[in-house]
Structures are given as C-alpha cells and as structure tokens.
Write a structure and sequence with these properties.
Length: 486
C-alpha cells in the first residue's frame, strides 16, 4: 500500500470514528428498496415526481455551497442524486459533505429533471449502509494494471461497468445453453467432482486426500465417464454444465479451473452431434446477441450456418501442403514433418505426427467456424473407430478464431476395444506421460452391461464466452481466475 493510499485510509478511519461518536452506525442493516437506478432512468416519464427508495455506492460527488450532487451506482447502473441543505438541515448536509467515494448509502427522495436535463433524485433522507475505508482508484483502465484487476476483481467490478457486462452476458449465455438443451429433451445431471480415478480426458489431475476413507481422490478433469455410465443405466439424453480441474499451465486460453458443457445422446453418432452443436451455438448467439455476425478483436466472425466441415488430413493438405494419406509408415510421417520445420519426437507415431503438424501449421488458419473431423485413433482413446479407416475415429473438433471450442465423437461402446485403448494409455503413463488415462475397471464393467451407440460433446464455456464478449483472455471471463501468489 502506497503512503498516499495509507494516508487516505487513515482519514477515512477517522471519519468512521466520528460517525460512531455522533451515534451513527456506519454499517447499517436492511434497507428496503422499491426500485433501482435503471428503472428511474428508463421509466422517467412514469417516475417523475414520485418518491423512491434506492441504495448503492457513491461513485462521484460535487459540492456547490449549500447544494451538491453525487452519482449513486447499483447493479443496474447509475443515477444522479441532488442534496440540498434546505431539505436535509445543516447537520445532515454536513454529513453528506463528509461522504467518501465508495461509501454505500440508502436514499429516499423524489425523481425530477434538473435544468440541464439530468434525471436525478432529490434526496430527502439518507442512511449509511457501509463505510468504505479503502479509496477507489481514480482511473481503472483495463490495460493499465491487468494483474491487479484480476487479483482485486471486486474493485474491478465497482469501477469498470464493461467488466460487469461481460459477466452478465456470461450468465445469459449459460442460461441459453441450458434452455436449448432442455427444449431438445436433454436432462441436466450432476456427477462427482472428486473421483477415485480421473478420466474422460488426457490431462494431469489435482490430487487430494480423504482422511476418513484413507484414500487419495482426484478433482475431475472431465465428467465424461460418469455421464456415459448414465447412458448404460438408461438415460438417453443427458448434459452437465460442470467445473473441471486440470493441473496444467496458465495462459490466455487456459485456467486450471474452468467450465465445460458435456452432452451425451444415445442412438446418435458424431454427425448428429455436429448438427446439434451448430444449432446450439447458433441459437445461443442469436438469442444473446441478436446477430449472427460477431466482432472479436479486429475480426468479424460469421456464425451463419452451415459451417464448413473438413477432415484433419484435408486441412493439413490445404494449409501445410502435405498429403498424409499417402504416407503410411511412421518414419515417413516424421520425415515429412521435419521437412516442414517441425521438431518431432523420434518415437512419435504417425497419428501423433499428424496432430503435431495440424496444431502448428493448420490451427492458425482456422478463423471462421469450422468442424475438423477424423482424428487419429491414438489421440482419441474414447472415440469409436471409423469403419472404413480404423486408423482414424469418428470425431470432430470445432475451431473458431484459431482455438478449439468443442470436441465430440461417436462414443466407443465396445468394452474389449476400450480395454485395449486403456492398456495403451497405461503403457504411455508408464513411459512418463502424466496426462495419459488410468485404467478404469468400473467403467469397463459398465460397458460390459451394454452402452447404446451414442454421440458425446464437450464445449469450453469459458472460450465460448470469450468469443461472444470480445474478451482476449480467459481471465477476462472468469470472475476469480487462478493467479500466481504474490
């Protein structure tokens, strides 16, 4: 804390003591409001001349002798307050003059229009609800101190209305996702966040310990295997808006704790889910934004369907100039990738090489919404093999603005094939891959009872919100992102 800020805080502490010395409680109790600032502004024609009770935070204050103005801010916005010594009396007016920016007050007064045409409330009485001891920053521009904004989100929300709007829109987006799926006949469910075996994705988990049971548990990296157990149990359309935890790096696209939507539909395949995904996102965009064209940074994204669909190998041929369908052996694939300037692991399989080329040389070109299908089987341990080409799976990823927004596939429901895939993952883990899958015997047992053919989908809610709020960093759409300790 700077010396200047500390001095201002000491002044406020002195004012706090003075209030109490006068018998005024600086931290009041319940205050019954009958309206909010937005209703006063938007409904002025009906509100003019009426008495109102509003509450909020003082964001600006201007004193002109025996009269003064303040801006009162609540969640809906701001309205101007007009204080007069003739209305309040000298003692109460002096109390107004001693207010600090950031103080929370309750106000009773009459709505009117000033001579300058400003919608205002002429204050007849007010009460302290919370005295602010820390001074608000005079200027709080997002690019000025981004780190402090994230660490003190509560201050960011007070002084930066556009930040509040991002999180209002986030709530709208999630609500519309739920509404769409409910209308499609899906059932929202909840699955464990602490799991004995982490599964459903390739990621490093967080580990905790349950004292009473004496066992280690893992924060879930995905709800997938539990949701598919529900398909075995007879639920045919389920979804979960869930919190996942992955012990990975932090970047503008990654936060260790994040929100995912996962959807599973029995008797469907990845083509059905592709159609569902397109309809879902287009519906959300239309309902929330009212326009299928969205500005993200300096790019206009057009969500108008239908979206392009292209296989991974076709995308590589288009953007990297290599046709891996003619490269059948692993060493040949590695040589092709090295010729493109990539540093390839000498032990990388053909599928891993294909994925590396795709990530490095193709993803930067995927700006407008596009479905990329047919991923190598090594990269998709839970996806069904393609019948015509078993080296690839019936899977797709949705890319928008160079980033993966959704991942989906025809679910693998063959327990023998799934066991073999798990065994391959266990072997990778034994070789040091901390993100490889564990063996999950209970999930295999569930599959042996029979799981109907199904399509599954995962959408990164945070990344979708980023696109629809023009937010360049995932930290801009998570209220309290994970940060390095000071």
């Amino acid at each position: 804390m700077s010396d200047e800020v500390n001095e201002l805080k000491q002044v406020r502490l002195h004012k706090l003591a003075e209030l109490r010395a006068q018998g005024i409680e600086p931290y009041g109790g319940r205050f019954e409001r009958d309206t909010v600032t937005a209703h006063i502004r938007n409904g002025f024609a009906e509100m003019e001349g009426k008495k109102v009770r509003i509450a909020g935070r003082v964001m600006a204050r201007r004193i002109h002798g025996k009269a003064g103005f303040a801006n009162l801010q609540d969640q809906s916005g701001q309205v101007q307050l007009y204080f007069r010594a003739d209305d309040l009396g000298e003692q109460r007016y002096e109390l107004f003059k001693s207010m600090d920016l950031g103080d929370i007050i309750g106000v009773e007064g009459t709505v009117f229009l000033t001579r300058r045409g400003e919608i205002s409330v002429q204050v007849e009485d007010f009460t302290y609800l919370a005295k602010s001891l820390n001074p608000l920053p005079e200027k709080w521009h997002g690019l000025r101190d981004v780190e402090l904004r994230y660490r003190q989100r509560y201050v960011d929300l007070i002084v930066n209305p556009p930040v509040r709007e991002v999180f209002v829109r986030r709530s709208q987006i999630v609500r519309e996702v739920r509404r769409f799926l409910d209308e499609e006949g899906f059932l929202e469910v909840e699955t464990p966040m602490m799991q004995p075996i982490p599964g459903g994705a390739t990621a490093r988990p967080f580990v905790t310990h349950h004292n009473a049971l004496g066992v280690d548990l893992f924060l879930r990296i995905a709800p997938e295997l539990y949701l598919k157990r529900l398909l075995v149990g007879g639920f045919e359309r389920v979804y979960e808006v869930n919190r996942n935890f992955r012990n990975e790096g932090i970047s503008t696209r990654h936060n260790p704790e994040f929100t995912m939507l996962e959807v599973y539909q029995a008797y469907a395949d990845f083509n059905d889910i592709m159609d569902l995904t397109e309809r879902l996102i287009c519906t959300v965009v239309e309902r929330v934004l009212g326009n299928m064209k969205v500005r993200f940074q300096d790019t206009e994204l057009d969500f108008t369907p239908p979206w392009e669909r292209i296989t991974m190998l076709e995308a590589i041929a288009r953007y990297a100039g290599v046709d891996f369908s003619t490269v059948r052996d692993e060493e040949g694939a590695r040589q092709e990738a090295r010729a493109l300037g990539l540093d390839i692991d000498p032990a990388a399989s053909r599928g891993e090489v294909i994925n590396e080329v795709f990530e490095e040389l193709v993803e930067p070109h995927l700006v407008q919404p596009v479905f990329v299908t047919s991923h190598p089987v090594e990269l998709s341990p839970l996806a069904k093999r393609n019948r015509d080409n078993p080296e690839f799976t019936d899977r797709f990823e949705l890319f928008i603005m160079n980033r993966e927004i959704a991942n989906a596939f025809s679910e693998l429901n063959d327990p023998l094939d799934q066991r073999q895939r798990f065994e391959q993952q266990v072997a990778k883990r034994a070789r040091g891959d901390a993100e490889a899958h564990f063996m999950d015997e209970d999930y295999l047992n569930a599959l042996e009872y029979g799981m109907p053919p199904a399509g599954g989908l995962g959408i990164g809610i945070d990344r979708l919100v980023m696109l629809l709020t023009d937010s360049p960093s995932i930290r801009d759409v998570i209220l309290f992102p994970t940060l390095r300790p000071l």
